[in-house]
Every structure is written in C-alpha cells, then in structure tokens.
Predict the structure.
Amino acid sequence: MSELTTFTLVPFEPLPDSISLSVTGTLVREGHRLSISYLMTGDVNSVALPALNTTGERQDRLWEQTCFEFFVASGPEK
C-alpha cells in the first residue's frame, strides 16, 4: 500500500465563526484500487445530516446537503 496524498476540503461557503469544523482526506493506491478516506473533526454535532436513503435509489443534487464529493480525471500515462 502506498499513500499518495492528503488534502483538506474547503466549504463552498464559509462556516460561521462559532463552528470549528475540518474535513481532511487521504488517497491511497493499492494495485489498481484507489481508496479515499475522510476524517471530520471539530464540532461534528453541528453538522445537519440528511435522512438516510433506504431505497437504494440514485439521488441528485447531493451538494445541496451534507456530502463529500471527489472527482478523478485520468490523463496519459507517463
């Protein structure tokens, strides 16, 4: 297993000064598998979680709720 990088997410809108919250992540590659891990620290009780989707159906507009998105693009091999 080789760690590729760590990163910190930046919210689209600044958090209120009264909330101390941080989300960091780590990318790890193992063979042909890429794993992404997130760690949320701080005032985690101030995070409003959406209702659990128990139907398994696809949901749109997730960025309007609490979610973590990660986009990957591949380019030519070096």
Notes: The two ends are 21 Å apart (CA to CA).
